[in-house]
TrEMBL record:
GO MF, one example: protein N-terminal-serine acetyltransferase activity
UniProt GO cellular component terms: cytoplasm
PROSITE patterns named in the record: GNAT (PS51186)
Domain N-acetyltransferase: 16-183
Name of the protein described by the UniProt record: N-acetyltransferase domain-containing protein
InterPro entries, alphabetized: Acyl_CoA_acyltransferase, GNAT_dom, Ribosomal_N-acetyltransferase
Domain of life of the native organism: Bacteria
Amino acid sequence: MRHWPLTRLTLTTPDLVLRVPDDEQLDELAQVAADGVVPPGAVYFPQPWASGTPEQTARNIVQNHWWARGDWREDNWRLLLAVFRDGRVIGQQNLSARDFRITREARTGFWLGLRFQGRGFGTQMRAAALHLAFAYLGAERVTSTAFADNAASRRVSEKFGYEPNGVRRLAVDQHLVEAHEAVLTVERWHGQPQQPTLVEGFDECQHVFGVPTAPEPIDVVLHL
Ligand SMILES: CC(C)(COP(=O)(O)OP(=O)(O)OC[C@H]1O[C@@H](n2cnc3c(N)ncnc32)[C@H](O)[C@@H]1OP(=O)(O)O)[C@@H](O)C(=O)NCCC(=O)NCCS
């Protein structure tokens, strides 16, 4: 699409491709969500988008993507990428920020269909989002929030060297949950072994992130 430059952005990891989905791919993504994202009874998100019926969950995904596009502003953006494995959609990686030009801070979120979890894909997804944020957008900090009992999500952050950044108490579905925020600084990110990510199409969409002067990207060679 000529007039929505984000459609040209592609992140490639050893096993995955991350892109803004077209409507057909969005429909596939919605089906993956409808087939299940969290184990029965688990609550991993502040908004219960994945806890309703399959039909409600699927529609939440579609509407959320359309809303994020419609509401995109240079000072308040939410990049929602579909994650593809061998051409099939398996989950979603988010990177969002408010007033990024000034704060240089972004936050991530991610999910995979249940059957795709626990195979290292979430780690590659996070690596791709961090690479875009730090090496291309010039982020200084990236945060991630996970509920206390979400061991997989918290472990992914731990693997990248995030540090604890406080605990918030939330009421979700009338229950108390503790949301643990973790933060990764660009200095700590540089100190970690880099996971290979190839970023394409960034030049065409750099301006929509509100960062006219991002630093020179750091090349990480990807051996496919
Ligand atoms: C969170 C999520 C995206 C992570 O993706 P993933 O592909 O499952 O994660 P990975 O396989 O890359 O890594 C998970 C890590 O957590 C560890 N882990 C998983 N379950 C664990 C548990 N119950 N206790 C301790 N460690 C656990 C894994 O061993 C792995 O660590 P390792 O590489 O050191 O062995 C995925 O599990 C998911 O979609 N969960 C449901 C939705 C969700 O919780 N989203 C995040 C909301 S904050």
